[in-house]
Amino acid sequence: MALQPRQKRNLRKTLITITVLAVVTLVLTLGLVLGLRSKKNSSTTSSSTSQFSEAWNSPSEFVLSKNFSITSTPTVRSYEWTITEQTAAPDGLARPMLLVNGMFPGPLVEANTGDRIVVKVTNNLSKGTSIHWHGMFQNGTNWMDGTVGVTQCPIPPGQSFTYNFTVPNQWGTYWWHAHSQSQYLDGIVGPLIIHSPEEPQLNNYQEDIIMMVSDYYHTDSSSLISWYLSVDSQGTEPVPDNGLINGRNSFDCTLDSQSLFPTGLPCTSNAPKAEFDFKAGTTYRVRIINTGAFADFQFSIDNHTLTVIEADGIDMQPVDVQRLPIHVAQRYSALVHANQTVDNYWVRATMNTNCFNVPNPALNEFVTGIVRYEGASTTDLPKSVDWTASAWAPRCLDLTLDMLKPYFAQPAPDADVQVFITASFQTIRSDHMNLGYINETSWSPLPGNATIFQAQRGVTAFDPSQLIVTLNTTGVVEVVVSNFDEGSHPFHFHGHIFYVLGWGDGAYVPGKTQLELTNPLRRDTSTIPPFGYTVIRFVNDNPGMWAFHCHIDWHMAAGLMIQFESLPQDIKNFQIPPEMAAMCAAT
């Protein structure tokens, strides 16, 4: 008996065992096909960290320099990146990864609002790639958004492409990642921080640090996608093997054989965790970014209250929490006061396993890092205890709307256009593959093309795999997203900040469902509750082809994406660099 699509976790043990055995067999076969080397597991319980080179992971990248000048005078920030395949061991298990300049996570991009960011990307992989600048408006440079199949074709192997765009009128915490296939799961990811003298909390902290949290898979994403997009998975998403904070964590190597996808790769237990130096009396701005594929996290620091001041690049009225839920692609900033006894404290990023359909016996969902106060032991593990309040909810949801209020208040503008979309998983194809659908369309990238080039030529009848809403005039668009799935979906809108007017269970009833219109939350990634709805509004004033998709990577690969064609007459006048068309011809 096979595992049924998207079946809940109250499965009998025998069903899980059969499923795991089937998965293991499939992955071993995929490994042979892909030429992955299966090496003898070199598991050890040694606590030595001597073999963990700093070459691929630089903790200093996550501490923002005091020497960076926050100014309103714009400048050009130039970077040169080379993407290669290398072996790295973020948690002690050595696996092939895709690294930018040999680093995981990749290099920090830091700028001021108004600056121009120029990044030359050289692709030394065997497949095409791209970089998406998550949260950037790209107003006037839609073709720099980096979304394969929408705003560009992949950068071909052995070739380079230069992203060149400005960042006016926005600041906060962002990130960059590959937007080709599922490559960011394999390492093409990094932080993007934009400063401004206008930030309201700028003088209320002395230090500025980044904490990137993510789920982590020991099997390469191509193999996992191949399995997930097959009838064998029956819609069950791959469950992570571990989690990371700033690219680091430990893994019990003896559990590799129990994983849903055993690797047999070299592994050393007790790999080092991420560590953060605190000084008593100092206030830290902690920028938390979920750069994972699937898992919703609850973030906390033992004994330290988190004062949330930013969500997805929008300043918030300060609100104190002990735990902070953060779904895939979301970002928060929190002020943390180093006001506790000089000691070591656990940083916790705990996965909400309620949102996984099957267990992974190898997974320790309690991901941790360490805060070390100046004067405390530099080697002892923390003895701090977790907050006792706020038990896990059975679903993956955001902070409530009444908790997140923008610092700079804006009422929601009246809507000129209303768009209704549904998100679901269906097995309506003849091959019975379980795919994601927005309305009745399951998205897949166009081979050797992108919808921006078609729109520039004036195409109005797009491929059936492209669900495109055309918005011909400037105005306010209300989008009602109804989720017909049992899982939550963190939807991200490229090129825009939107107003989150409301979300809830069941169906949205126009004119009856209560909405927040006075000063609603504004952000770029919002979680649609299971079997529920979310209502958003955005101002349609940014010409281009803009993706709106679930940021759970497995779901986007399965087709949960829609595009908004904003102001098509302006798109026809885009001056797209000619080398971008050449990239399409080469793929």
From TrEMBL:
CDD domains: CuRO_1_Diphenol_Ox (cd13857), CuRO_2_MCO_like_1 (cd13886), CuRO_3_MCO_like_4 (cd13910). PROSITE patterns: MULTICOPPER_OXIDASE1, MULTICOPPER_OXIDASE2. GO terms for molecular function: copper ion binding; oxidoreductase activity. InterPro entries: Cu-oxidase-like_N, Cu-oxidase_2nd, Cu-oxidase_C, Cu-oxidase_fam, Cu_oxidase_CS, Cu_oxidase_Cu_BS, Cupredoxin. Pfam families: Cu-oxidase (PF00394), Cu-oxidase_2 (PF07731), Cu-oxidase_3 (PF07732). Keywords: Copper, Metal-binding, Oxidoreductase. Residues 83-198, 208-376, 457-569 form the Plastocyanin-like domain. PANTHER family: ADR239WP, MULTI-COPPER OXIDASE. Belongs to the multicopper oxidase family. This is Multicopper oxidase.
